[in-house]
What does this fold into?
Amino acid sequence: MAPRPRKRAARPKPRAGSRRGGGGDEDPFFESEPKRRRGARDEDIESEESDDDGVAALGGGGIDEDGDAEEEEEETAGEKKMRIAKELLRKATEAAKRREEDEEDDDEEVGGRRVAQILQRKQLEESGRKRKEIAARVLPPGPKDGFKVLLKHRQPVTAVALSQDSDRGFSASKDGVIVHWDVETGKSEKYLWPSENVLVSHHAKPPLSAKRSKQVLALAVSSDGRYLASGGMDRHIHLWDVRSREHIQAFSGHRGPVSCLAFGVDSSELFSGSFDRSIMQWNAEDRTYMNCLYGHQNEILTMDALNKDRLLTVARDRTMHLWKIPEESQLVFRAPAAASLECCSFIDDKEFLSGSDDGSIELWSIMRKKPTHIIRNAHPMLCSNPDSVGIDDPDLPKENGIHKPENVSSAQSWVSAVAARKGSDLAASGAGNGLVRLWAIEPDSKGIRPIFNLKLDGFINSLAIAKSGRFIVAGVGQEPRLGRWGRIRTAQNGVAIHPIQLKEEKDDL
It folds into this structure.
């Protein structure tokens, strides 16, 4: 059976007499497309303000909740300008606030980076990988500034030492007196030598003569501040307990006077140098002998120790040796012609200073066998030439108020002590010419330059600079440390301290 055909819906026919696009009773379906689009555009334009206004535009008016019609108030040109100006002002204010917040975030980020850089620099300075710049911050000494005698000794002071924090100091003299003193108050306490029987019980060998010599030539204090070591003419190293100030051990082994001592940095290892040309290594914690180093051909005079197990020694064979303890090796540096090295000091692990008996100061580098820079006549005798200097020159040393050029020994120009604030560019030197000189170490071994001269009468037998760089301590005597070939009667035997004024660091935390 064939499928039944489906009927199509009949299309309504327009009424008679009607036309497309005709009058008011015509069907809206047959309106022309342009008119409908135009009506939609009119509705959109009228409804721009708000939904309520759009409703009012379509209906020709508005109806409130009570059903009352209200006419819409038109916006005047002045009100429109005011509205636009307020909108622009609001947008500008918001943009300014956003910029300020961004700048604050940038400032915080820059400040954080700056703090990180400062902390990194300080860590490098503390570890010794970067040299701390102190010399450029040293201010000229004022008229009231000068060396003040902190402690008096009866005999010439031969050695001074400062603790790790530079709060306490130690000094010794030719009469065997060892004193422990406070840097701020100057309060001092003496170390009492035990009897001969106690010394022998502490492993000291009996003296060669009837009486043991107690003359002290060297001092050293450990980094932790627990032990103090002294050495002198009796050929022993004596170990003292700093807290109780009691003698606890005597190390024997040297066959000549012990002329220098040094503790390793952050270590209990102790090094001693002697006139017998040997260097011995000890352990203060275990109180044992460790090793003996040979290399010098004459009496060893001074030494200095640094971290990484580095030791620097100077002897009367006109050489300076840099010892590498773990590697069991040494570097030999020879003094310039016609000069004999008297003292030495580490600056850092790459550079060091020395002083000579001809009055010169040498700057050395581990990369060269010869000095990289020499300061000739660093401590000239102020009255060596009476014809060139007025007899009334106030800088000349006096005896009973009268200048005595003929009594001035050539030993007064010897550089008897050098010291450096390790890891920095500040150093000092002393002699018997009445001056302690401060020096600035130029970077990259470019040289050294003088900063200021500090007056101090007497032989400067020992120097120490505080870790903060804010003061310097000098051991002064009327005679040199290792002999009696000169004498300055006007000098005061004792310990003198001089403040060093520093500019504050701008980036200091």
Notes: The chain is about 15% helix and 35% strand. Confidence is low (pLDDT under 50) at residues 14-25, 34-72, 383-408. Helices lie at 33-46, 51-59, 77-127, 196-201.
